Amino acid sequence: MAELTIRQVRKSYGAMEVLHGIDLDIEKGEFMVFVGPSGCGKSTLLRSIAGLEDITSGELRIEGQLMNHVPPSKRGIAMVFQSYALYPHMTVRDNMAFGMKIAGMKKPEIEQRIRHAADILQLGAYLDRHPKALSGGQRQRVAIGRAIVRDPRVFLFDEPLSNLDAALRVATRIEIAKLKQAMPDTTMIYVTHDQVEAMTLADRIVVLKDGYVEQVGAPKELYRCPRNMFVAQFIGSPAMNIIEGRIVHNGGDHVTVEHAAKGTAEIALHMEEEVIGRSVRMGVRPEDLSLADDGPHIFSGTIDHIEHLGEVQLVHLDVGLSNQAVIAKLAGLLDLARGDQIRLRTAATSLHLFDDQGERLNGPAGG
Amino acid sequence: MTMPAPASQAAPANIWSTLARAVLLGFLLCLGILVIYPLLWMALSGFKTNSQIFSAPFDLPTGFSWANYVAAWNQGVRSFLFSSIVVTAASAACTVLISAWTAYGLTRTRMPAKPVITALILGGMMLSPTVALIPLVRMMQSIGLYNTHWALIILYTAFRIPFTTFLIRAYMLELPSDLDEAARMDGASDGQIFWRIMLPLCRPIIVSSVILHILFAWNEYLFAMIFTSDLDVQTLPVGLTSLMAKHGTNYAQVFAAMTISALPIVILFFLMQRYFIRGLTEGIGK
Q: Where does the record place a coiled coil (chain A) (predicted)?
C-alpha cells in the first residue's frame, strides 16, 4: 500500500478551481518532488496534504487512513516552510521544543530529541541563540530540525532553498539529500520551481501545470521521454528546441520530417498509419546537438549570440525563423564567433516528435 | 588645476546646511521650551506659597518645601490617584486583551463575513461618547454600577476597543501567516497560537496601545464626571476640579496636586518611549 494516496483531489477558491482532480500515489520512503511554473498549484497541493488548505473534493489518505478532515498536527506530517517560519521570539531550542511541549511530552524526552536533531544538523552550538542571530543556512537547518524532532511519517518541504544564495543553495541541497539517506523510511515531498533541485533530489518528479499533473516519473524518464511538449521544455536547461514541421516520408522504422528551418531530419519512429503530410513538432535538446562539418545535418545557420559558461557554450543559431533561434550546447573549447556559419547534427534517436496538440509521438531510446 | 573649483562650491553649501541645521535646532528648542516650561512652572509653583505665585509668578521658589505636596496628597489626591490607577490599569488590560483577541480573529481565522464584522467593529470609532451619555447613565444605574470604578472600566474599555483593534489588526496583518501555520502544524490551538506566538510578536504595538489607552483613561473627564459622584471613586481629572473648588485660593496646593497627577504618565512615557514609537511606525506606518 502506498504511504500517501491522492484521489481526484480538487481545490477551489470560490468559483476558481486551482487543482483539477489530482491522482497520485507516493510510496513509503520515496522522495517525491512537485515541480512546475508559478501558479501551477504545486504549493496548494502540498498545503492540502499538510492540512493547511481544505480539500474541496477527493480523497487524501496516509497509510490508508482518510485524512481530509484530520487536523494538520494529527497527520504525522512535518513541514519546512519557504520562509522557515521560525518563531523569532524563541531560541533555537524553544523553536524545536514548541510542538513537543504542546503535545505534553516529558522534558528529558524533548531534550533528547533536540540533541539528536542538533547532532544530525550540526546545530549544537546554536541552541540558545535566537533566529535573528543565525545565518540563512543555519535558520534553514533549524527549520528542518524542528520538523525532524516530530519524527514525522511524511516530511514536506515548500521551496526551502529559494531564500538562499546560489552557493548555499547547492550546499543545502546536498545536505537535504544526505538527510534523506539518513531517514530512509521517511517519505519526503518537496516543492520547487527549480528543475535542478528536482532532478538532483527526486526519486520521482510530478510535473504540474495549471492545476493538472502533466507527467509523473523518474528524473531520467522525464528528461528522455517527456510525455508532452510542456514537460519537454520545462525539464532541461536550456529548454528543448521545438521546431514545427511535417512528415514527408515513412520508412517503416523511421520517418523523415521536413522542418520549418528548411532542413530535414530522420527520426526513429515506427508508424503504421498514413502519416505523410501530417504536421508535427520536432524537438531536440541543446546538449544533443553537435557540429556537423561536412556530413548530414539538421540545422544550418548563422551564429546570432554566444553565452560562454566555461566548460560549455550556448550557441544561439539563426536558422531563418523570425521568432526563434536554435540553441546548441557545444564544448567551450570550440573556437566560434558571432556571425560564423555553422551546421548542426544529432542522432536520429535523440529527436523527439510531438503531434500538433503537443503530445509525444516517440521518444529517444534509453528513457 | 580643477581641484579648487569644487572646494569653493562646497564652502557655501556647508554654510547653508549649517545654517539650516541651526535654524531647525533653534525651532526644536523653542518647541521643547514651549511644552516643558508650563510643566516645570507648575511643578515649581507647588514649592511656593500662594502669595509668591501671584507676587512673583516667574521667580524660582525661595525654598523647596514639600508641604504643599503633602497637603495635596492628604486632601484627597491619594484617593483620586488610587482610583485613576485602578480604572486605568483595569481598562487598559481589558481593552488591549479584548482588542488583540479580536484582531487575531479578524486577521487569522476563516470567519465568514469578515469584512462586515471588521467594518462594524471599526465603525465604533465613529460613535460619539456624548451622544450615548443618557442611555449609558440609565444602563449603569439599572445594573447597579453607577458611581463605581466598574462603570468607568467598562465604558473606557468599550469605547477604546475599536481604535485599539484597528491598531493591533494593522500590525497583525504585517506578520507572516507562515508563523501561525507552523504553530498549527506543531499542534497548537488558536488560544495557544494567540498567547504563545502572536501576542509576544505584537509586543511593540501592544505597548503602544497600552500607552495610548493610559493617556486616554488617565486624562478622561466627561465619563468620570458623569458616572462618579463620591470622592472615593473619582479619578484625578474630576478630583482635581473638586480640589480647586474647595481650595480655590490655594493655587500652590492645586499645582502640587496637578504635578502629582501628571508625573506617572510622564515617567511611563519616557520608560516606554522606544516601544511606543516602534509599535506605531511598524504597525500603521506601513
A: none
